[in-house]
Amino acid sequence: MISIKPFKASRPPRDKAYLVATRSYMSYSDEQLDEKLENNPFTFLHIINSADIRKLPFGEAKYKKVKENFKNFEQEDIFREDEKEGFYLYRQVKDGNEYIGIISAVSVLDYQSGKIKKHENTLTQREEMFTDYLETTGFNAEPVLLTYKDDLRLDLIFAKYIDQRSEYEFTSTDRVLHQLWVIDEDNDISKIKTAFKDQEALYIADGHHRSASSSKLYDRAMEKATVDSESSQAYFMAFLIGEEQMKIYDFNRLVKGMNNLSQNQLLEALHKDFLVEKKHEEAYRPGKLHEISMYLKGEWYKLVPKTGTFDPADAIDHLDTRILSKLILKPILGIKNLKTDQRVGFLPGTEGLEGLKQKVDSKSFDIAFALFPVTIEQLKKVADENETMPPKSTYIEPKLRSGLTVYKFGAK
Length: 412
What we know:
32% of the residues lie in helices and 24% in strands. By secondary structure, the chain is an alpha+beta fold. Strands 1, 4, 5, 6, 8, 9, 10, 11 and 12 form a nine-stranded mixed beta sheet that branches.
Protein backbone atom coordinates (compact mmCIF):
# COMPACT_ATOMS: atom_id res chain seq x y z
CA MET A 1 0.00 0.00 0.00
CA ILE A 2 1.51 3.31 -1.15
CA SER A 3 0.55 6.61 0.46
CA ILE A 4 0.50 9.68 -1.77
CA LYS A 5 -1.24 12.98 -1.22
CA PRO A 6 -2.14 16.11 -3.16
CA PHE A 7 -0.48 19.38 -2.24
CA LYS A 8 -0.68 23.10 -2.91
CA ALA A 9 2.10 23.70 -5.40
CA SER A 10 3.85 27.03 -5.70
CA ARG A 11 4.18 27.55 -9.42
CA PRO A 12 4.46 30.23 -12.09
CA PRO A 13 1.42 31.77 -13.78
CA ARG A 14 0.48 30.39 -17.18
CA ASP A 15 2.24 33.11 -19.19
CA LYS A 16 5.60 32.65 -17.40
CA ALA A 17 5.89 28.87 -17.00
CA TYR A 18 8.04 28.45 -20.10
CA LEU A 19 10.40 31.17 -18.85
CA VAL A 20 10.68 29.86 -15.29
CA ALA A 21 11.18 26.11 -15.81
CA THR A 22 14.77 25.07 -16.37
CA ARG A 23 17.00 22.05 -16.74
CA SER A 24 19.27 21.16 -13.84
CA TYR A 25 21.88 23.90 -13.42
CA MET A 26 24.57 21.22 -13.59
CA SER A 27 23.73 20.61 -17.26
CA TYR A 28 24.83 24.13 -18.23
CA SER A 29 28.36 25.42 -18.74
CA ASP A 30 29.36 28.63 -16.94
CA GLU A 31 28.95 30.53 -20.22
CA GLN A 32 25.46 29.12 -20.76
CA LEU A 33 24.47 29.95 -17.20
CA ASP A 34 25.65 33.54 -17.63
CA GLU A 35 23.65 33.84 -20.85
CA LYS A 36 20.48 32.43 -19.26
CA LEU A 37 20.75 34.67 -16.23
CA GLU A 38 21.44 37.77 -18.30
CA ASN A 39 18.64 37.29 -20.83
CA ASN A 40 15.84 35.70 -18.80
CA PRO A 41 14.80 37.50 -15.59
CA PHE A 42 12.26 34.77 -14.78
CA THR A 43 14.39 31.62 -15.01
CA PHE A 44 14.48 29.46 -11.88
CA LEU A 45 18.26 29.64 -12.19
CA HIS A 46 18.05 33.08 -10.56
CA ILE A 47 16.83 31.29 -7.43
CA ILE A 48 19.20 28.33 -7.23
CA ASN A 49 22.31 29.46 -9.10
CA SER A 50 22.44 33.23 -9.45
CA ALA A 51 25.82 34.92 -9.81
CA ASP A 52 26.02 35.77 -6.08
CA ILE A 53 25.10 32.21 -5.08
CA ARG A 54 27.75 30.72 -7.34
CA LYS A 55 30.40 32.69 -5.43
CA LEU A 56 29.41 31.15 -2.10
CA PRO A 57 30.72 27.78 -0.86
CA PHE A 58 28.23 25.04 -0.13
CA GLY A 59 26.79 25.73 3.29
CA GLU A 60 24.18 27.65 5.26
CA ALA A 61 24.90 31.07 3.73
CA LYS A 62 24.42 29.69 0.22
CA TYR A 63 21.19 27.90 1.14
CA LYS A 64 19.78 30.96 2.91
CA LYS A 65 20.37 32.97 -0.24
CA VAL A 66 18.43 30.39 -2.27
CA LYS A 67 15.54 30.71 0.18
CA GLU A 68 15.70 34.52 -0.01
CA ASN A 69 15.67 34.46 -3.82
CA PHE A 70 12.64 32.16 -3.83
CA LYS A 71 10.75 34.48 -1.47
CA ASN A 72 11.60 37.39 -3.77
CA PHE A 73 10.08 35.50 -6.71
CA GLU A 74 6.95 34.91 -4.61
CA GLN A 75 6.72 38.58 -3.71
CA GLU A 76 7.04 39.48 -7.38
CA ASP A 77 4.17 37.08 -8.14
CA ILE A 78 6.40 34.88 -10.30
CA PHE A 79 5.41 32.02 -8.00
CA ARG A 80 1.89 31.63 -6.62
CA GLU A 81 0.67 28.96 -4.23
CA ASP A 82 -2.47 27.17 -5.37
CA GLU A 83 -5.51 27.73 -3.19
CA LYS A 84 -6.57 24.09 -3.32
CA GLU A 85 -4.59 20.90 -2.97
CA GLY A 86 -4.20 18.87 -6.11
CA PHE A 87 -2.19 16.44 -8.16
CA TYR A 88 -0.45 17.73 -11.29
CA LEU A 89 -0.71 15.71 -14.48
CA TYR A 90 2.43 16.24 -16.54
CA ARG A 91 3.09 15.21 -20.14
CA GLN A 92 6.41 15.43 -21.96
CA VAL A 93 7.11 14.57 -25.59
CA LYS A 94 10.73 14.19 -26.68
CA ASP A 95 12.10 12.62 -29.86
CA GLY A 96 8.76 10.95 -30.52
CA ASN A 97 8.55 9.45 -27.01
CA GLU A 98 5.61 10.40 -24.81
CA TYR A 99 5.79 10.42 -21.01
CA ILE A 100 2.66 10.93 -18.86
CA GLY A 101 2.34 10.81 -15.08
CA ILE A 102 1.43 12.80 -11.99
CA ILE A 103 3.40 15.07 -9.70
CA SER A 104 2.50 14.24 -6.13
CA ALA A 105 3.73 14.26 -2.56
CA VAL A 106 4.92 10.77 -1.53
CA SER A 107 5.55 9.42 1.94
CA VAL A 108 8.97 9.39 3.57
CA LEU A 109 7.74 6.49 5.70
CA ASP A 110 7.13 4.45 2.55
CA TYR A 111 10.74 5.10 1.60
CA GLN A 112 12.02 4.18 5.05
CA SER A 113 9.97 0.98 5.15
CA GLY A 114 11.22 -0.15 1.74
CA LYS A 115 7.99 0.36 -0.19
CA ILE A 116 9.81 2.96 -2.28
CA LYS A 117 12.72 0.89 -3.54
CA LYS A 118 16.18 1.94 -4.65
CA HIS A 119 18.78 0.37 -6.93
CA GLU A 120 21.73 2.72 -6.30
CA ASN A 121 23.90 3.49 -3.31
CA THR A 122 24.07 7.06 -2.08
CA LEU A 123 27.05 8.95 -0.69
CA THR A 124 26.68 9.98 2.96
CA GLN A 125 28.42 13.32 2.39
CA ARG A 126 26.01 14.25 -0.43
CA GLU A 127 23.04 13.09 1.63
CA GLU A 128 24.06 15.39 4.47
CA MET A 129 24.66 18.30 2.10
CA PHE A 130 21.24 17.91 0.47
CA THR A 131 19.58 17.51 3.87
CA ASP A 132 21.13 20.78 5.07
CA TYR A 133 19.94 22.40 1.85
CA LEU A 134 16.36 21.19 2.31
CA GLU A 135 16.28 22.13 5.99
CA THR A 136 17.32 25.71 5.19
CA THR A 137 15.40 26.35 1.94
CA GLY A 138 12.19 24.52 2.89
CA PHE A 139 11.19 23.34 -0.57
CA ASN A 140 11.54 20.69 -3.29
CA ALA A 141 11.80 22.15 -6.80
CA GLU A 142 12.63 19.05 -8.88
CA PRO A 143 10.54 15.90 -8.44
CA VAL A 144 12.12 12.52 -7.77
CA LEU A 145 11.26 10.18 -10.66
CA LEU A 146 9.36 7.10 -9.44
CA THR A 147 7.81 4.32 -11.50
CA TYR A 148 4.79 2.16 -10.73
CA LYS A 149 3.00 -0.84 -12.22
CA ASP A 150 0.64 0.50 -14.89
CA ASP A 151 -2.98 0.81 -13.79
CA LEU A 152 -5.90 1.28 -16.20
CA ARG A 153 -7.82 3.27 -13.57
CA LEU A 154 -5.13 5.93 -13.63
CA ASP A 155 -4.89 5.91 -17.41
CA LEU A 156 -8.64 6.64 -17.68
CA ILE A 157 -8.39 9.60 -15.30
CA PHE A 158 -5.37 10.98 -17.16
CA ALA A 159 -7.16 10.62 -20.51
CA LYS A 160 -10.02 12.77 -19.27
CA TYR A 161 -7.70 15.66 -18.46
CA ILE A 162 -5.56 15.36 -21.56
CA ASP A 163 -8.70 15.99 -23.61
CA GLN A 164 -8.99 19.38 -21.87
CA ARG A 165 -6.94 22.50 -22.32
CA SER A 166 -3.71 22.25 -20.34
CA GLU A 167 -2.68 24.77 -17.70
CA TYR A 168 0.80 24.91 -19.28
CA GLU A 169 1.88 24.06 -22.79
CA PHE A 170 5.26 25.07 -24.18
CA THR A 171 8.18 23.72 -26.14
CA SER A 172 11.61 24.32 -24.62
CA THR A 173 14.66 25.23 -26.68
CA ASP A 174 15.79 21.59 -26.72
CA ARG A 175 12.59 20.79 -28.68
CA VAL A 176 10.81 19.07 -25.82
CA LEU A 177 7.07 19.60 -25.39
CA HIS A 178 5.84 20.17 -21.82
CA GLN A 179 2.20 20.18 -20.69
CA LEU A 180 0.63 20.32 -17.23
CA TRP A 181 -2.94 19.95 -15.94
CA VAL A 182 -4.19 20.57 -12.39
CA ILE A 183 -6.22 17.70 -10.90
CA ASP A 184 -8.12 19.21 -7.98
CA GLU A 185 -11.56 17.56 -8.24
CA ASP A 186 -12.18 15.67 -5.00
CA ASN A 187 -13.55 12.58 -6.76
CA ASP A 188 -10.53 12.24 -9.05
CA ILE A 189 -8.13 12.85 -6.16
CA SER A 190 -9.81 10.07 -4.19
CA LYS A 191 -9.63 7.64 -7.14
CA ILE A 192 -5.92 8.36 -7.67
CA LYS A 193 -5.12 7.84 -3.98
CA THR A 194 -7.07 4.57 -3.99
CA ALA A 195 -5.22 3.30 -7.07
CA PHE A 196 -1.86 3.89 -5.39
CA LYS A 197 -3.00 2.19 -2.20
CA ASP A 198 -3.22 -0.94 -4.36
CA GLN A 199 0.40 -0.58 -5.51
CA GLU A 200 2.79 -2.86 -3.62
CA ALA A 201 5.85 -0.72 -4.32
CA LEU A 202 7.31 2.24 -6.19
CA TYR A 203 10.79 2.17 -7.72
CA ILE A 204 13.21 5.10 -7.81
CA ALA A 205 14.27 5.74 -11.38
CA ASP A 206 16.11 9.01 -10.75
CA GLY A 207 16.67 10.92 -7.52
CA HIS A 208 18.25 8.52 -5.02
CA HIS A 209 20.08 11.30 -3.14
CA ARG A 210 17.01 13.55 -3.08
CA SER A 211 14.94 10.69 -1.62
CA ALA A 212 17.57 9.85 1.00
CA SER A 213 17.99 13.48 2.05
CA SER A 214 14.21 13.92 2.47
CA SER A 215 14.29 10.88 4.74
CA LYS A 216 17.13 12.37 6.80
CA LEU A 217 15.28 15.69 7.01
CA TYR A 218 12.24 13.94 8.46
CA ASP A 219 14.41 12.12 11.00
CA ARG A 220 15.98 15.41 12.09
CA ALA A 221 12.55 16.98 12.55
CA MET A 222 11.35 13.93 14.51
CA GLU A 223 14.30 14.30 16.88
CA LYS A 224 13.13 17.84 17.55
CA ALA A 225 9.53 16.60 17.97
CA THR A 226 8.33 19.17 15.44
CA VAL A 227 6.59 16.83 12.96
CA ASP A 228 4.40 13.75 12.71
CA SER A 229 3.63 11.33 9.87
CA GLU A 230 1.18 13.78 8.29
CA SER A 231 3.39 16.87 8.44
CA SER A 232 4.64 18.38 5.19
CA GLN A 233 8.17 17.23 6.01
CA ALA A 234 6.94 13.64 6.09
CA TYR A 235 6.51 13.83 2.32
CA PHE A 236 8.61 14.79 -0.70
CA MET A 237 7.70 15.72 -4.26
CA ALA A 238 7.83 13.05 -6.94
CA PHE A 239 6.79 12.45 -10.52
CA LEU A 240 5.08 9.06 -10.74
CA ILE A 241 5.07 7.38 -14.13
CA GLY A 242 3.93 3.93 -15.28
CA GLU A 243 6.56 1.34 -16.13
CA GLU A 244 5.47 1.22 -19.77
CA GLN A 245 5.76 5.01 -20.07
CA MET A 246 9.31 5.28 -18.77
CA LYS A 247 12.23 4.74 -21.12
CA ILE A 248 15.54 3.22 -20.03
CA TYR A 249 18.48 3.93 -22.34
CA ASP A 250 21.84 2.21 -22.37
CA PHE A 251 24.73 3.88 -20.55
CA ASN A 252 27.85 3.15 -22.54
CA ARG A 253 31.55 3.05 -21.68
CA LEU A 254 34.63 4.67 -23.20
CA VAL A 255 38.21 3.78 -22.32
CA LYS A 256 41.48 5.66 -22.75
CA GLY A 257 44.46 3.45 -23.57
CA MET A 258 44.66 -0.32 -24.01
CA ASN A 259 46.65 -1.27 -20.90
CA ASN A 260 49.82 -1.71 -22.98
CA LEU A 261 48.12 -4.25 -25.26
CA SER A 262 48.21 -4.27 -29.04
CA GLN A 263 44.97 -4.61 -30.98
CA ASN A 264 45.70 -8.30 -31.67
CA GLN A 265 46.58 -8.98 -28.03
CA LEU A 266 43.36 -7.35 -26.86
CA LEU A 267 41.26 -9.38 -29.30
CA GLU A 268 43.06 -12.56 -28.28
CA ALA A 269 42.34 -11.84 -24.61
CA LEU A 270 38.66 -11.30 -25.38
CA HIS A 271 38.37 -14.75 -26.97
CA LYS A 272 38.83 -16.36 -23.55
CA ASP A 273 35.37 -15.38 -22.30
CA PHE A 274 33.58 -14.11 -25.41
CA LEU A 275 32.50 -15.16 -28.84
CA VAL A 276 34.04 -12.37 -30.90
CA GLU A 277 32.65 -11.44 -34.31
CA LYS A 278 33.95 -8.64 -36.48
CA LYS A 279 31.03 -6.74 -37.98
CA HIS A 280 31.16 -5.22 -41.43
CA GLU A 281 28.23 -2.84 -41.01
CA GLU A 282 28.98 0.83 -40.55
CA ALA A 283 27.98 0.52 -36.88
CA TYR A 284 26.83 -2.38 -34.75
CA ARG A 285 24.22 -1.96 -32.01
CA PRO A 286 23.52 -4.78 -29.52
CA GLY A 287 20.25 -6.45 -30.44
CA LYS A 288 19.46 -8.11 -27.10
CA LEU A 289 20.71 -8.65 -23.57
CA HIS A 290 24.22 -10.10 -23.22
CA GLU A 291 25.44 -8.69 -26.52
CA ILE A 292 28.17 -6.07 -26.26
CA SER A 293 29.33 -3.85 -29.09
CA MET A 294 32.96 -2.73 -29.23
CA TYR A 295 34.43 -0.02 -31.46
CA LEU A 296 38.21 -0.24 -31.86
CA LYS A 297 40.56 1.16 -34.49
CA GLY A 298 37.71 2.03 -36.85
CA GLU A 299 36.10 -1.42 -36.63
CA TRP A 300 32.96 -2.71 -34.87
CA TYR A 301 32.88 -6.04 -33.03
CA LYS A 302 30.08 -8.12 -31.52
CA LEU A 303 30.99 -9.70 -28.16
CA VAL A 304 28.80 -12.43 -26.65
CA PRO A 305 29.84 -13.84 -23.24
CA LYS A 306 30.31 -17.59 -23.21
CA THR A 307 28.08 -19.87 -21.15
CA GLY A 308 29.29 -20.07 -17.57
CA THR A 309 30.97 -16.67 -17.46
CA PHE A 310 28.10 -15.17 -15.44
CA ASP A 311 25.18 -16.34 -13.30
CA PRO A 312 21.91 -15.69 -15.19
CA ALA A 313 19.90 -16.04 -11.97
CA ASP A 314 21.91 -13.46 -10.02
CA ALA A 315 20.37 -9.95 -9.98
CA ILE A 316 23.75 -8.24 -10.38
CA ASP A 317 25.99 -10.80 -12.07
CA HIS A 318 23.78 -11.04 -15.18
CA LEU A 319 23.72 -7.27 -15.81
CA ASP A 320 25.70 -6.39 -18.93
CA THR A 321 27.39 -3.50 -17.13
CA ARG A 322 28.64 -6.03 -14.58
CA ILE A 323 29.69 -8.53 -17.27
CA LEU A 324 31.68 -5.83 -19.07
CA SER A 325 33.48 -4.78 -15.88
CA LYS A 326 34.10 -8.31 -14.60
CA LEU A 327 35.32 -9.85 -17.87
CA ILE A 328 36.90 -6.95 -19.78
CA LEU A 329 37.46 -3.67 -17.95
CA LYS A 330 39.04 -5.12 -14.83
CA PRO A 331 41.05 -8.19 -15.97
CA ILE A 332 42.07 -7.03 -19.45
CA LEU A 333 42.15 -3.23 -19.33
CA GLY A 334 43.14 -2.90 -15.67
CA ILE A 335 40.21 -0.70 -14.63
CA LYS A 336 39.31 -1.68 -11.08
CA ASN A 337 37.10 1.22 -9.98
CA LEU A 338 34.66 2.87 -12.40
CA LYS A 339 34.03 5.76 -9.99
CA THR A 340 37.64 6.86 -9.66
CA ASP A 341 39.60 5.65 -12.71
CA GLN A 342 40.22 8.65 -14.97
CA ARG A 343 40.61 6.42 -18.02
CA VAL A 344 36.88 5.67 -18.11
CA GLY A 345 34.18 7.82 -19.66
CA PHE A 346 30.43 7.36 -19.87
CA LEU A 347 28.03 8.31 -22.65
CA PRO A 348 24.24 7.91 -22.47
CA GLY A 349 22.51 5.99 -25.23
CA THR A 350 20.69 9.16 -26.27
CA GLU A 351 23.97 10.13 -28.00
CA GLY A 352 23.75 7.02 -30.21
CA LEU A 353 26.52 4.92 -31.71
CA GLU A 354 27.68 7.94 -33.65
CA GLY A 355 28.47 9.67 -30.37
CA LEU A 356 30.68 6.76 -29.31
CA LYS A 357 32.37 6.59 -32.71
CA GLN A 358 33.12 10.31 -32.63
CA LYS A 359 34.76 10.04 -29.22
CA VAL A 360 37.12 7.33 -30.47
CA ASP A 361 37.77 8.77 -33.92
CA SER A 362 38.68 12.13 -32.34
CA LYS A 363 41.30 10.35 -30.18
CA SER A 364 39.55 11.40 -26.96
CA PHE A 365 39.25 7.69 -26.16
CA ASP A 366 40.64 4.50 -27.66
CA ILE A 367 37.81 1.99 -27.18
CA ALA A 368 34.02 2.28 -26.99
CA PHE A 369 31.63 -0.32 -25.60
CA ALA A 370 27.89 -0.12 -26.34
CA LEU A 371 25.46 -2.11 -24.20
CA PHE A 372 21.86 -3.24 -24.47
CA PRO A 373 19.66 -1.16 -22.14
CA VAL A 374 18.84 -2.50 -18.69
CA THR A 375 15.22 -3.69 -18.62
CA ILE A 376 12.63 -2.58 -16.07
CA GLU A 377 12.48 -6.19 -14.89
CA GLN A 378 16.22 -6.14 -14.19
CA LEU A 379 15.95 -2.82 -12.35
CA LYS A 380 13.10 -4.11 -10.18
CA LYS A 381 14.88 -7.39 -9.43
CA VAL A 382 17.94 -5.52 -8.19
CA ALA A 383 15.78 -3.24 -6.03
CA ASP A 384 13.61 -6.09 -4.71
CA GLU A 385 16.72 -7.98 -3.58
CA ASN A 386 18.19 -4.84 -1.92
CA GLU A 387 21.14 -4.91 -4.27
CA THR A 388 22.78 -1.98 -6.08
CA MET A 389 23.70 -1.67 -9.73
CA PRO A 390 27.21 -0.82 -10.96
CA PRO A 391 27.76 2.94 -11.50
CA LYS A 392 26.10 4.48 -14.56
CA SER A 393 24.03 1.41 -15.44
CA THR A 394 20.92 3.28 -16.56
CA TYR A 395 20.06 6.52 -18.30
CA ILE A 396 16.36 7.09 -17.74
CA GLU A 397 13.93 9.53 -19.31
CA PRO A 398 11.97 11.68 -18.87
CA LYS A 399 14.35 14.27 -17.45
CA LEU A 400 12.26 16.75 -15.50
CA ARG A 401 12.47 20.52 -15.29
CA SER A 402 13.13 22.43 -12.07
CA GLY A 403 10.69 25.09 -10.93
CA LEU A 404 7.55 23.96 -12.76
CA THR A 405 5.98 22.97 -9.44
CA VAL A 406 7.49 23.62 -6.00
CA TYR A 407 6.58 21.65 -2.86
CA LYS A 408 7.02 23.69 0.29
CA PHE A 409 7.41 22.19 3.76
CA GLY A 410 8.35 23.17 7.29
CA ALA A 411 8.28 26.70 8.63
CA LYS A 412 7.10 29.47 6.32
